[in-house]
Write a structure and sequence with these properties.
The protein has five helices and 48 strands. It is mainly beta. It has an 18-stranded parallel β-barrel. Strands 44-43-46-47 form a four-stranded antiparallel β-sheet, with no helix packed on it. It has a two-stranded antiparallel ribbon with strand order 11-12. A hairpin with a 2-residue loop joins strand 3 and strand 4. Helix 3 crosses helix 4.
């Protein structure tokens, strides 16, 4: 029995209604698939750069119509199930599909099963139209063998599948034996579509499991599972749909790390509400989001985070070795601990669009590889890092609000070319960290620099409120464009800007206010004027800061979110040998620019471009500053 391409008048209306709803996404899926291939091939340093991921949705995946004349109709009832047509048999409360074809199923089994066992060259189409099946011993819907199975949720239908806790059913024998660990469990490729509703009660382990690809095109899903919500070993691909998940482990997961091009999660659209005790969405290789609305809580949210303590000045000035060890710990996944991240990929993570809200006990967005954000709107509350990349982190157009974090944005390299980004962090706002240091042991009065670490800001708007360093690079820091506002730190162990390598500004606008103990100047190789002004007093949060030229024209103006004793300014409007007026509320100071990197007033640190004074001499912090340093852990 083969699926027909022609449809009856009634089924055509149903099909057109659903396909019409999805039509707007079809072109986008093709385009984004091409975009993904381009993205993953653009950087030869990533382990996924040469892999061709299948991000397409086939015409069969999108198809929801059927030929009524060729249907096998099945009505389920305890000990009274009936079937009309070919390819299905009933034994007590077990319905077995034995031939490829299309099956329309309705009715209830209080303790039974729908089983698919067909040759692996045949496809099966199951249409659920008011199905309620509970199994006390196995998966209510079990797909043992097929080339591919399509499950369509009939229009406006309500369907429920439930397994009971304690089931230990197995499929296969010997080395091929597999635990049936999903309420829907499939050993074949599985696609779900349609415009009905499906409720999954996964009391044994996972909700929907495919040992191959799991594809969802449309439908409404309520999933409660003690394990994962959606699990596709080779891939999870979602085009659209509405999903509400409460899970005891990950919300969505793909974990094949043995085959090239497998183990990925691709989401083109949909509406997701996920409350996961572990990761919200986790991919072993690529995680790509091209659209959709997401509300994800992972591990109970940021309020459930493990408390962390900033190491302050001691890490930066006296014990770089301690910083390196700390950062290695932060960048190395502890397999013995429970991961509670929002979006997580072992390989590469790409966000091109979508509205994403995450509250996570751990990192909100995390990858061990490269992280690329080109668009979308993200609101992130993190118990650790807001954005974390083990390798390169690139932001080129997203709107990002990190409302709570330990470190806001962390990567081996950080490149910002566009976007609107706000960061609140209890330690560093941005941190380019990890990699190989140029010295093996730190010496008091010296700092080490990593040749692999780089922070480059060429565009966008960046606002940072940090208790640690505002912008911190263990290597080079380069600013050539964009608008940057930094508030903090208030302690003497950190600085608004901190770099262990060259610190260069050639363009853009910088307005920073923080403590003076570790304030860092820009290097002489800069081509745009910068001014570091240190004050003898500390000004309160909420102070208005304004820089005007000799004609009284206001060049820079902002409000400090924290108390401060120094400000750092740079703008294309500043010129060498120029004279300006700096105002803190009603108090004014004369600013005479005498060099490309001008330092004025009282400062302790000033160690820019390798943490050196403008005159090239290192300056040891005062005893008062040393006494205010937090202790190292």
């Amino acid at each position: 029995m083969k699926k027909k391409q022609k449809q009856s008048k009634m089924s055509i209306l149903v099909s057109l209604a659903v396909i019409g709803m999805l039509a707007g996404c079809q072109t986008t899926s093709s385009e984004t698939a091409q975009s993904a291939e381009s993205s993953t091939t653009s950087d030869a340093s990533t382990t996924t750069s040469t892999i061709d991921y299948d991000l397409e949705f086939s015409s069969d995946d999108l198809e929801v119509g059927y030929e009524e004349a060729d249907l096998t109709t099945i009505k389920l009832a305890d000990d009274q199930s009936t079937t009309s047509g070919e390819g299905a048999s009933i034994d007590g409360n077990t319905l077995t599909i034995t031939a490829g074809g299309t099956y329309l199923i309705s009715g209830t089994l209080s303790d039974g099963q729908i089983k698919v066992t067909v040759p692996d060259t045949e496809e099966v189409y199951l249409i659920l139209d008011g199905v309620d099946v509970t199994s006390s011993t196995s998966a209510p819907l079990l797909i043992e063998e097929a080339e591919k199975v399509f499950v369509t949720l009939a229009e406006d239908s309500e369907n429920t599948l439930t397994d009971k806790a304690g089931s230990t059913a197995m499929i296969g024998t010997g080395d091929d034996a597999t635990t049936i660990d999903g309420t829907i469990f499939s050993k074949a490729d599985l696609t779900l579509n349609g415009s009905g509703n499906l409720t999954i009660n996964g009391n044994t382990n996972h909700g929907i499991v495919s040992k191959d690809d799991l594809t969802i095109v449309s439908g409404t899903y309520q999933i409660t599972a003690v394990g994962q919500g959606l699990s596709g070993k080779d891939a999870v691909k979602i085009k659209d749909g509405t999903f509400s998940m409460t899970t005891g482990t990950d919300g969505i997961q793909s974990d094949n790390d043995e085959e090239e091009g497998k183990g990925f999660v691709y989401i083109a659209g949909g509406d997701f509400t996920i409350d996961a005790e572990q990761d919200g969405i986790q991919a072993e290789t690529l995680l790509q989001v091209d659209g959709g609305t997401f509300d994800i809580t992972a591990g109970g949210g940021s309020a459930n985070a493990v408390a962390k303590t900033s190491e302050g000045m001691g890490k930066d000035f006296f014990n770089q070795k301690a910083e390196t060890e700390t950062e290695e710990n932060l960048n190395t996944e502890d397999t013995s601990s429970t991961s509670m991240k929002g979006l997580k990929a072992t390989g590469e993570l790409i966000i091109n669009n979508g509205t994403i809200t995450i509250d996570a006990a751990d990192d909100t967005v995390h990858t061990d590889g490269n992280l690329t954000l080109t668009g979308g709107t993200l609101s992130l509350a993190s118990g650790d890092d807001g954005l974390h990349a083990g390798n390169d982190l690139q932001l080129s157009g997203s709107t990002i609000a990190i409302t709570e974090s330990y470190e806001g944005i962390e990567g081996k390299t950080i490149t910002i070319s566009d976007g609107e980004i706000t960061v609140v962090a209890s330690d560093d706002g941005l941190n380019a960290a990890s990699g190989t240091s140029t010295t093996s042991e730190a010496v008091p009065g010296e700092t080490t620099s990593s040749s692999e670490n780089l922070m480059v800001i060429s565009g966008g708007t960046l606002t940072v409120n940090s208790s640690g360093d505002g912008l911190d690079s263990n290597g080079t820091l380069e600013i050539s464009g964009g608008t940057i506002i930094v508030s903090g730190p208030e302690n003497s162990g950190n600085g608004a800007i901190d770099s262990n390598g060259d610190t260069i500004i050639t363009g853009g606008t910088l307005m920073a206010a923080g403590s003076s103990g570790m304030a860092v100047t820009f290097g002489d190789s800069s081509s745009q004027v910068s001014v570091l002004y240190g004050f003898e007093t500390t000004y309160e949060a909420g102070s208005e800061i304004e820089l005007s030229d000799a004609d009284g024209t206001v060049l820079l103006s902002w409000t400090a979110d924290k108390s401060f004793s120094s400000v750092q300014l740079s703008s294309a409007d500043l010129e060498e040998d120029g004279t300006y007026t700096l105002a803190i509320d009603d108090e004014t100071f004369e600013v005479t620019v005498d060099s490309i990197a001008t330092t004025i007033g009282t400062t302790t640190g000033q160690m820019g471009g390798g943490k050196q004074h403008g005159n090239g001499d290192m300056q040891r912090p005062s005893e008062e500053d040393i006494g205010s340093m937090p202790e190292l852990n």
